[in-house]
Amino acid sequence: MTDTPASELPVSDFPARGASVRNTSARGAAAAPVGLVGLTVSSAPVPVPRLPRLTEELPRTPLAVRDLLRPALLATAETAVAEAGLSPDEVRNMGCVTASNGATAATGTYIAQVLAGPGPRWLAPECFLYYSPHALTGELSIALDLDGHAVTLTGAAAGVDALGYAALMVRSGRCRSVLVSAAHWPRPATPDDESVPLLTTAAAILGSGGDGDGDGGGSVDSWGGVTGWRPGGNHPAVREDDPAGSTDGPGTDVTAPFAALARWRASRGTRGVELAGGGSRLTVVAGDGT
User: Fold this and answer.
1) Exposure check for the chain: N or C terminus, fewer CB within 10 A?
2) How many CB atoms lie within 10 A of CB 157?
3) pTM, full prediction
4) What is the DSSP secondary structure assignment for residue 238, as one 8-state letter?
5) Cβ neighbours of 95 (radius 10 Å)
6) Could you give the dihedral angle defined by the CA atoms of residues 33, 34, 40 and 46, in that order, rounded to the nearest 10 degrees?
């Protein structure tokens, strides 16, 4: 028997259970699936920023981090937006939710190494901008000219929670459509580790289906629907008297739910699938969920 990945579990394999949450909107998340109309997952080996081995190799100007993460995430997001077939006005009004669980930590490690070695005068100010996870959300919003609500989620459950939170944004009427993105760029295991990690970026568009069922009213029919978000772990929607839920550690790949979603779409399955990560779960159904 082959084990099913934790991020891709058939709905029928789970007993029905309600989410213990503070607000009724999260508890009623299963009432109306929100359409999925765009999805892209990309992965490539990308070296993390490193200090020169010899002090003589340091430049005379402050060291700046070459921004590799944000351009990769933007390219993935642009592909998902193009697949969704959104008009310029629809893109302009789109919200943005970004998931990261240490994707920018490689830059943080670099900054720490400079501070511990050559010293702070070698750091250019933009180094600190690239260290912030919310810089990813800001880059997407500025580059794509998004005027909608923008949120950055971090932690092991961020990938699943980003999809679930975006669905609530659409269902509540806060946004007609939402760009949901995620990035995973693991740090080297040790300072001497010269391996080149995989940079994985993912993006999905929620709420712009063309079926008129309240999921955004865009021009493209949805191929799936998101519903049943059950946040877990340390999410603020979970009551204090609830079990904390499972967490998968700081190395959790928050793009894994998007990859599982891409495999499910490629299989053209008609059964729903449950995505899980960091103690959170949500359900994806085929078509518009009707």
Assistant:
1) N
2) 30
3) 0.80
4) B
5) 24
6) -90
Q: State the Cα–Cα distance between residues 173 and 111, nearest whole angstrom.
A: 41
Along the 290 residues of the chain, how does pLDDT read in single tens digits? 333 343 444 333 222 222 222 222 333 334 578 999 999 999 999 998 888 877 777 878 888 888 889 999 999 999 999 999 888 888 999 999 999 998 998 888 889 989 998 899 889 988 888 889 999 999 999 999 999 999 999 999 999 999 999 999 999 888 999 999 999 998 877 777 788 999 999 999 998 654 434 443 444 678 899 999 999 865 555 444 433 333 344 458 999 999 999 999 998 767 888 999 888 999 999 875 43
What is the rounded CA–CA span in Å between residue 281 and residue 34?
15
Strand-pair partners of 277 = 280
- DSSP bridge partners of 181: 98, 203
Inter-residue contact 269 to 7 (CB < 8 Å):
no
What separation in angstroms does the CA of 259 have from each of 83, 149, 184, 200, 230?
Answer: 17, 25, 12, 10, 20
Rounded Cα distance between 176 and 124, Å, is 39
Put residue 228 in one of left, alpha, beta given phi > 0 → left and psi -120 to 50 → alpha.
Answer: left
Backbone angles phi, psi at 30, to 5 degrees: -80, -5
Tokens in use for 254? Answer: 């928050």
Q: b vs e for 109-123, b when ≥16 Cβ sit within 10 Å of the residue's Cβ? A: bbbeebeeebeeebb
SS (H, E, C) 103-135: CCHHHHHHHHHHHHCCCHHHECCHHHHHHCCHH
| Residues 102, 251 contacting (CB under 8 angstroms) | yes
> Phi and psi for 282 in degrees, rounded to 5?
-150, 165
Place of tokens 């399955």: 269
